[in-house]
Amino acid sequence: MNLLHYYIGVDLGGTKIRVALARSGGEIVDVRSFPTEAERGTETVLANLQSGVDVLLADGGCPWDKVAGMGVCVAGFYDCKAELMIKSPNLPGWEFFQLKQKLEDLFALPIVIENDASAAAYGEFCFGTGRGQEDMLLLTLGTGIGGGLVLGGKLYRGSRGFGGEIGHIPILPDGPRCGCGRRGCLEALASGTAIAREGRNLLAGHGTTLLREMVAVSGDLRAEHVFEAARLGDAASNGIIDRAAYYLGRALAIAVAILNPGIVVLSGGIAANGEQFFDPVRRHFHAAVLPLLATEMLIAGGRLGADSGIRGILQLVEEQLE
Ligand SMILES: [Zn+2]
Predict the structure, then answer these.
(1) Ligand 1 centre and the CA of 137: distance in Å?
(2) Whether the domain at 6-121+307-321 and the domain at 132-302 fall into the same CATH topology
(3) 167: CA distance to ligand 1 center in Å?
(4) Alpha-carbon distance values, 29 to 32, 57, 61, 261, 307 (Å)
């Protein structure tokens, strides 16, 4: 292989496809975003990915024969043994889709595929908050809850690639319906979607809350409104956040009892609220966990933001192909 070569990193999301071109060694040359158009089906999404990669290579002056491989991270259940996309919450029509084979045919490159939260965990482990750690659990707290594990310095996938799916730990019997179809999963109790749902339930009642004025202005209710109302002193909104933090703290106590990590990294849109959320999560976690498991364990925010998945998948593709 030539000394100078490149890798392509892709973060395949429900609304955006982020594509990065990186030199071997990890230096990112360029990152661009293109619309996914997920509702138009797999062929359109792959065509959008292909034209995005073409644009990136052309503008970067990088010929195709200098590209050594491509890594793709995607939300959803990717079976790494069968090399099959089982299901993705963001990509309708991708059930039992042979993603790896399809990409290999399309790009004639070695392809590495990873769950997006696992890639984000590896990114934060190599370049962000997890640097210097050996064992780390990462949660992505957004519309859903994803999880990724690095154990003994290595990304842990489990037997089929579904390791670390902490969002689907069943926490509350007969609780609210989760995106996976079951009831009472962590994701149905502590995700952005869950916090917004509790906000709407609050509005359906007759209690006083600042959320009423906020929704009158914005027209809809999102988790960020609940956080903002709580910052302004709204007790009912603060109660919703504390409840979500309670469930998350308990789920972390379960995961930590099994894994004994040195650090838990919280990333994604909900984690962007920082200490406002971390503080009650820590409090509920410490109330639930066996103390000796928690004395030296950190709970901290991610450092790489939206780039964590791309950085992680680029590192993984380089490690696997060199
Ligand atoms: Zn679930």
Answers:
(1) 19
(2) yes
(3) 6
(4) 10, 10, 10, 33, 14
Tokens of 218: 């914005």
User: Domain extents for the chain?
Assistant: 6-121+307-321, 132-302
**pLDDT tens, position by position, 159-201:** 999 999 999 999 999 999 998 999 999 999 999 999 999 999 9
Cα of 106 vs centre of ligand 1, distance in Å, is 33
Structure tokens at 213: 């004025």
Ligand 1 midpoint to CA 233 (Å): 32
pLDDT for 132-163, tens place per residue? 999 999 999 999 999 999 999 999 999 999 99
Gap from CA of 190 to ligand 1 centroid (Å): 12
Write the DSSP assignment of 12-41 as a string of letters: E-SSEEEEEEEETTS-EEEEEEEE--GGG-
| Mode of pairing for the β-strands spanning 136-141 and 145-151 | antiparallel
Cα(322) to centroid of ligand 1, in Å? 37
CATH superfamily of 132-302: ATPase, nucleotide binding domain (3.30.420.40)
Copy the structure tokens of residue 145. 């809850």
- pLDDT tens for residues 48-74? 999 999 999 999 899 999 999 999 999
Residue 180 gets the label, from left (phi > 0), alpha (psi -120 to 50) or beta, of: alpha
Å from CA of 1 to ligand 1 middle: 44
CA 296 to centroid of ligand 1, rounded, Å: 30
* pTM of the predicted model as reported, rounded to 2 decimal places: 0.95
Ligand 1 center to 118 CA (angstroms): 17
Ligand 1 centroid vs 204 CA: distance in angstroms? 25
User: Rounded distance, CA 221 to CA 212, Å?
Assistant: 9
pLDDT of residue 263: 98
Please check whether residue 133 is in contact with residue 125, taking contact to mean a CB–CB distance below 8 angstroms: yes
Q: Which fold is adopted by the domain 6-121+307-321?
A: Nucleotidyltransferase; domain 5 (3.30.420)
